[in-house]
Amino acid sequence: MNGNGPGNLVDPLEDPVPGLGTYEDFNTIDWVREKSKDRDRHREITNKSRQSTVALLHSVSDAFSGWLLMLLVGLMSGALAGGIDIAAHWLTDMKDGVCLIGFWFNHEHCCWTSNETTFQERDRCPQWQSWAELITGTSEGAFAYIVNYVMYIFWALLFSFLAVILVRAFAPYACGSGIPEIKTILSGFIIRGYLGKWTLIIKTITLVLAVSSGLSLGKEGPLVHVACCCANILCHLFTKYRKNEAKRREVLSAAAAVGVSVAFGAPIGGVLFSLEEVSYYFPLKTLWRSFFAALVAAFTLRSINPFGNSRLVLFYVEFHAPWHLVELGPFILLGIFGGLWGALFIRANIAWCRRRKSTRLGHYPVIEVLVVAALTAVIAYPNSYTRMSGAELISELFNDCSLLDSSQLCGYKQVSCAEEPGELKPIDYPYWCECKQTLCLIRKPVCPIRNHSVYYPSRFPSGLFIPSMAVGAIAGRLLGVGMEQLAYYNHDWFIFKGWCSPGADCITPGLYAMVGAAACLGGVTRMTVSLVVHHVRADWRLEYIVPLMAATMTSKWVADAFGREGIYEAHIRLNGYPFLEPKEEFEHSSLAVDVMRPRRSDPALAVLTQEGMTVGEVEVRIQKSTHYSGFPVVVSQESQRLVGFVLRRDLLISIDNARKRQEGVVSASQVVFTEHAPAQAAEAPPPLRLRGIMDLSPFTVTDHTPMDITVDIFRKLGLRQCLVTHNGRLLGIITKKDILKHMAQIANRDPDSILFN
How far is CA 279 from CA 183, 233, 298, 521, in A? Predict the structure, then answer.
């Protein structure tokens, strides 16, 4: 057996065992052990690099591998995001008609080469035909309208059906936005397959279908999941990241920045999003690499140019009028609205998800999706604003309404709210359509205020960035138009004197829409810094940063008054994931002895002794204690003096490997965790030495350590368990799950809702 005689010992530390040091599914990694492994690996490479040129080249390639990996992640994510944007635009237009010169062209691209388009009707051209024109030969009349209506509903149902079926059949993890799970994974939790190749393929395809179906959802959150899938798959090309879970999470943190970079065209905003919202461990090295990867991804997306406007985002605007101090009040009002909306949305969404889990509603996902898609299509089609995508609607609402703009919200037409139809006004009459704008939005209240709490998280890929922004943009545009009319007709009021002259363009409704969008998204997610950067990049004029900051902070304060959790933290808690929120303060005065296990009424803690136990006894102990992920090792059952800690998975792998590789190991063989094997009788089977798999310096606290300190230790060191001692004697153990249950109990929540450790 590999040359090992009866008296030879196999040391797992000196003779590596396959699978040793890995983790089971739905378990938390040991950050301290992973970082220690990486330091040992780096130290070994550095020492060898001084001995030969080959080793030196290996050291250089090892140092460069991280940057190469970031380059590949940026290129792959940017290419996929560009493809998703192009495909989604094409399928969205397919619901209305088809291009005769090439079915693969969307509506805009189909009419690019046409010489028969006008400024007011730039999307009308003979090359593009509606379904009514193809089927009936005419686009006029009630029957043609019904044909287009039916075809719109048909395509919406088909796209949503394909999306939900593909997710259910091939990749159940591809549903929802994925950000709550990614936050949990970045904190050290293991979810096998969540970032796998099938999840990436199905998420990419179904994201296109879901967005094209017309449901009120966005692709920005799912793009973070897509980028993290790319990073996880590419990590397997590099040994340093394949074999170390902590190093892999550094790459995933950078990938989260890449996802937001390609979603919003904001590389800096993406880095700040990863730092502020999703990352658990974010060293300075990860900051640099995140910035590089986000830059590469944005460059790749810009090269593809999916929107055809030479911009990274669809809703790029340029505001020309400055804002004034008087407007700070309305901006703060938008922040209050955003906070109230965010708190209401989170409560409604969590209540709906709980109902879906606890009732028969959750047993019929396909029917649920089809019913919601059908209702949405029926309501959306008659309204041109609900029929357009969320990003296009936001682009309309952000519009600055310049003289060369053909938007319906700011078309300088021959009809006024105050004048008779047909009466012409000069082209430079800037408020000609403002009443029309207000009526246009008020008459269309169904817009994205369609309650997208039903869709998030849905049975297929869905995000909430765009729907939340659209709600805020509508509210902001309405308030902005109201302020514009107030300033126009009452320019002699004291609040407008000195800066708003008669007939001047004093108020920019598009700016109010942008501030409202930031406020609503901030109220739902509780983002602040990264959110402001996302929205500043829409105009790139820093003078608008103050309104955005004021509205975003107000939104966060108002939403926090109703609950400290954002939508992602609420879903983490709903799913029972073991996530210690860094933003949440522990204010209770309990001690470690109050939280540790075993409690006074519980059986004694299962431990192993450093010598004296046989392989059979250890296996029985492991089988009986299936809910333990590891065992403390003590000197003896009587003394309970702590020696170390050994993981259950490592024990099982080492024993199984020893039976195969070490001759003579049987159930009666002694298991020793000491440095030197004890003397044995000549006829005794060879001992099994397992000191190499034992953690000789497990983290310990005394029984009187305050729990607020213990919680800080778990958060900052990423611990999965901590042993409790009294004068060196082992008393119990505290796991992350124990802490989360204790915190839930203090907050009057169900402690059994924490499902994993």
Answer: 7, 19, 20, 19
> Which residue from 650, 643, 641 is spatially nearest to 618, judged by alpha carbons?
650
Look at residue 7 in the predicted model and tell me its pLDDT: 44
Q: What are the residue ranges in the chain where pLDDT is below 50?
A: 1-8, 10, 13, 412-440, 442-451, 453
Query: 335 is written with which tokens?
Result: 């922040």
CA-CA distance, 98 to 96, in Å (whole number)? Answer: 7
Residue with tokens 């967005």: 211
Q: Which residue range forms the structural domain that includes residue 662?
A: 592-747
pLDDT tens for residues 644-696?
999 988 898 988 888 888 777 888 888 999 888 777 777 778 888 888 889 88
Q: Are residues 622 and 512 in the same domain?
A: no
Q: What's the pLDDT at 417? A: 43
- The C-alpha atoms of residue 442 and residue 18 are separated, in whole angstroms, by 65
State the pairing for strand pair 688-689/670-672. parallel
Do 430 and 568 fall into the same domain? Answer: yes
Closest CA to 513 of 437, 575, 624, 413: 437
* CATH number of the CATH domain containing 391: 1.10.3080.10
The helix (run of H) or strand (run of E) holding residue 735 is strand 729-735
Which pLDDT score, from 0 to 100, does residue 435 have? 43
- Domain identity same for 611 and 542: no
> By three-state DSSP, how is residue 468 classified?
helix
- Number of domains making up the chain: 3
Helix count and strand count (H, E) for the chain: 27, 11
Q: Are residues 565 and 606 in the same domain?
A: no
